Amino acid sequence: MQIIKPGTNIDFIGRRKAAFILSAAMILFSLFSLILHKGPRYGVDFAGGTQILVAFQNEADAGQIRAALDQTGIDNATVQESREGQSYLVQIRTIQTFDSESGILTSLPRLLYETTGFPAEILSIDMVGPQVSQDLRSQALYALFYALLFIMVYISGRFEMKWMLSAAVAGVFISVVYLFPQIMQNVFHISMPIPMLILVALVLTLAAFWKLGLAYALGASIALLHDIFITVGLFSVLDIEFNLPIIAAILTIIGYSLNDTIIIFDRVRENLASRGKKTFAAILNQSINETLSRTLLTSGTTILVLITLFVLGGGIIHDFSRALLVGVVVGTYSSIFVACPLLLLWHKKQGL
Amino acid sequence: MKVRSWRFYAVCVALILAIIYILPSFQPGLWPYKTINLGLDLQGGMHLVLDVEVEKALESTMERRTYELRDQLRKERIRYTSVRQLPDGSIAVRLADTADANAFSEFHRKEFPDMTMRRHTVDQDIEFRFSISAEEKAHIEKMATEQALETIRNRIDEFGVNEPDIRIQGERRITIQLPGIEDPERAKDLIGKTALLEFKIVDDSYDVQDALDGRIPPGTELLYEIRRDAFGQETGRIPYLVKRRAVLTGASLTDARVQVDSQFNEAYVSISFDRQGARQFERITGENIHKRMAIVLDNNVYSAPVIQDRISGGSARITGSFNMESARDLAIVLRAGALPAPVRIIEERTVGPTLGAESIQKGLLSMMVGGGLVLLFMAIYYKGAGLMANLALVLNILFIASALAAFGATLTLPGIAGMVLTLGMAVDANVLIFERIREELRLGRSPIAAIHAGFDRATLTILDANVTTLIAALVLFQFGTGPVKGFAVTLCLGVLSSMFTALVMVRLIFDFLYDGKHKPVTQISI
């Protein structure tokens, strides 16, 4: 059985302008939504506060739940209801945190029972203090940044044999990002906003890789950032919360999308060796077509299991698999339509 | 092609190891290997992060030094006008007679060499300021965190939790994992209590009402006793004016246990002192007959009995409005000792057992359905070769699970998702190889040559593609906590084992089936 017939030759590179417009539109749309929502919507992990998940056997009245919350002293709580199987789930979110002396969490099930008339069971409590949520936020950004740099070094090394050069560049940026906030803090007593710092470092890193001609790493990483940005944007459009598992999903998307890109680049490298008189664009097209069957198969099976997870996984896994689904689709697209055209662009600039 | 190649032995060893490590998870106690740990999100439990307020440990150290300094000066007969703590933590001493300055320097060298002393002139008076070095400060803070960890570990051990995990995170944080805990609020209460036990003499020479109005005499402080009803609801507060300095602390305790008063059928905690503490207790009670002694825990008065007589024998009882449970918890914290500094809960994640069981069920279901779909697809698409890939896929799950057990790693809900995801991505290596073999066949190579070329050429690609995923997973492992870390671990293991099964095991099967020795290979099922 075959999905893609041998000898298929679709002109992917020829459609790069249309792809560029599509990508730009998606990025603008994401940006617009992010600006409109004032950044991504942080969940309890990154915003801090308390999130309580309560299960009722019967459908309880939201007004009564609110009344019970008012009595305990949980202020400004958002109450979100959903139904899962037999039970009726209520998610309570507040920016407050509670210590054990307040006794609020102990008395909550009893109060809920008294006001609603239905027994309530606390399924889970997540309480994250402001310091911790801030730490988690900067840790997540550092993780994304480090992962990206390490991967860029690996690609430059493997595809262009520029191990030392790329490692040196990455080393400089890692130490700057690591040391700079500490120096500012200890010497000048200015605490750096980490997101700004990492954004600037990221742009400078990309500029450095461009200047030094590390084209493969540049193409792959821009394709990656494209995927991350669109996934984040789509989450913003759908108004989904950002929590730790979503960061895990995003890092997995990085790995997955690269996987795809590298397999095409690998074929490009192989085909360049027996190039003949073909143009670089033709080589790119040939490579994409030759690996197309594999690209579709792997994406297909991955999407298949992700859909099962999305439908059957429940709870936390739901948002996690949704992020991955978006990421896999966008990642497959970007390997072909973003990473390859960027490689071509650089080659043209070099007059090759 | 020799079948008994290194690949054959590698696969045999891997399979045997995997079976050895996985079996205890199905049949516990079969042999002394560990079973797969379930994360808190799967078995229910509580995850806490505490912040040790180390600056308070520093404060109390300096406070103790202030008392010592005063005592020593008195002993050495150096007269002073004031010895007090400054807001920056240092201790300022003013001498009554500046002529004593030289004797004082000598005193500093002899008695407190670990503190640095500086001379300052304030309002034409000479003031000596004692402070401790930055290293000493760091040491005190580090000790406070370590001691807090020990104390909390003792408390949890006595409370009785299966396989708790307690460790220091960073400089001053402690993470605690309590799997399967049934009463999280009580556990939190127990862990968070500073449990600083102090005995203070009630100062009855002043009117409490005066103190309540804001006229607190020097050297004393106002403390309250909180009365509670049987449900633990607060019913009232009784103020006490006590001498600020504790006559005895919980540091001299050797034991604390719950007992029941046969007369009133009330629970109380009986405590015993060590020898020095017993002597001190005897002396204090002797000196303060008919006065009241407040028993203070974390600045709350538990009771303030009137001392009837000199108490020897080194034991005392703490009464108050206790039920059995709260008396038991008090005994635990007293036995385990006080925390060197207060702790604050800065992160808490509690998962009830119901949610955990449900998560496992859903995770396994989606794994079976998703896996089944992939198996079906591969068998249809690649026929014979697809079946090999399917065998590899099933073994992948076995390898990941046994590696989790072997490394004592923890399986979390995102970890299960990672395993399911691996199912989808693990076929990638096989797909790359099979596609390559098909290509080589199309180029007109013989089946055996196509197999060899296919594997050889796909190997590098597979390596490159997987290393990048591995990098992302390792970074995730480094940065993640709890569930996210669990995901990173399964993803790493998934990548490694899928490479192994595709490049070593599937190749071995190909070599075995199409060795070309016994009959010529004309066709491969792919």
TrEMBL record, chain A:
Main location: membrane
Keywords: Cell membrane, Membrane, Protein transport, Translocation, Transmembrane, Transmembrane helix, Transport
Coiled coil: none
Subcellular location: Cell membrane
Domain Protein export membrane protein SecD/SecF C-terminal: 116-170, 199-348
Membrane topology note: Multi-pass membrane protein
InterPro entries given in the database record: SecD/SecF_arch_bac (IPR022813), SecD/SecF_bac (IPR022645), SecD/SecF_CS (IPR022646), SecD_SecF_C (IPR048634), SecF_bac (IPR005665)
Magnesium in keyword set: no
Transmembrane intervals: 18-36, 139-156, 163-181, 187-209, 216-238, 244-265, 296-317, 323-346
Keyword Transmembrane helix: yes
SUPFAM superfamilies noted in UniProt: Multidrug efflux transporter AcrB transmembrane domain
Functional description taken from the UniProt entry: Part of the Sec protein translocase complex. Interacts with the SecYEG preprotein conducting channel. SecDF uses the proton motive force (PMF) to complete protein translocation after the ATP-dependent function of SecA.
Family the UniProt entry places it in: Belongs to the SecD/SecF family. SecF subfamily.
Subunit structure: Forms a complex with SecD. Part of the essential Sec protein translocation apparatus which comprises SecA, SecYEG and auxiliary proteins SecDF. Other proteins may also be involved.
Stated name of the protein: Protein-export membrane protein SecF
Organism this protein belongs to: Desulfobotulus pelophilus
Name of the gene this protein is made from: secF
UniProtKB/TrEMBL annotation, chain B:
Compartments, as annotated in UniProt: Cell membrane
Domain Protein translocase subunit SecDF P1, chain residue ranges per copy: 146-204
Membrane topology: Multi-pass membrane protein
Gene3D superfamilies in UniProt: 3.30.1360.200, 3.30.70.3400, Multidrug efflux transporter AcrB transmembrane domain (1.20.1640.10)
Chain ranges of the Protein export membrane protein SecD/SecF C-terminal domain: 344-505
Primary location recorded for the protein, binned into one broad class: membrane
Ranges for domain SecDF P1 head subdomain: 236-341
Spans through the membrane: 7-26, 363-382, 389-409, 415-437, 458-480, 486-510
A Pfam family: SecD_SecF_C
Origin superkingdom: Bacteria
SUPFAM superfamilies: Multidrug efflux transporter AcrB transmembrane domain
InterPro entries linked: Acrflvin-R (IPR001036), SecD (IPR005791), SecD/SecF_arch_bac (IPR022813), SecD/SecF_CS (IPR022646), SecD_1st (IPR048631), SecD_SecF_C (IPR048634), SecD_SecF_C_bact (IPR055344), SecDF_P1_head (IPR054384)
Keywords carried by this UniProt record: Cell membrane, Membrane, Protein transport, Translocation, Transmembrane, Transmembrane helix, Transport
Subunit (UniProt): Forms a complex with SecF. Part of the essential Sec protein translocation apparatus which comprises SecA, SecYEG and auxiliary proteins SecDF. Other proteins may also be involved.
Cited PANTHER family: PROTEIN TRANSLOCASE SUBUNIT SECD (PTHR30081:SF1), PROTEIN-EXPORT MEMBRANE PROTEIN SEC (PTHR30081)
Role according to the record: Part of the Sec protein translocase complex. Interacts with the SecYEG preprotein conducting channel. SecDF uses the proton motive force (PMF) to complete protein translocation after the ATP-dependent function of SecA.
Family per record: Belongs to the SecD/SecF family. SecD subfamily.
Record-given protein name: Protein translocase subunit SecD
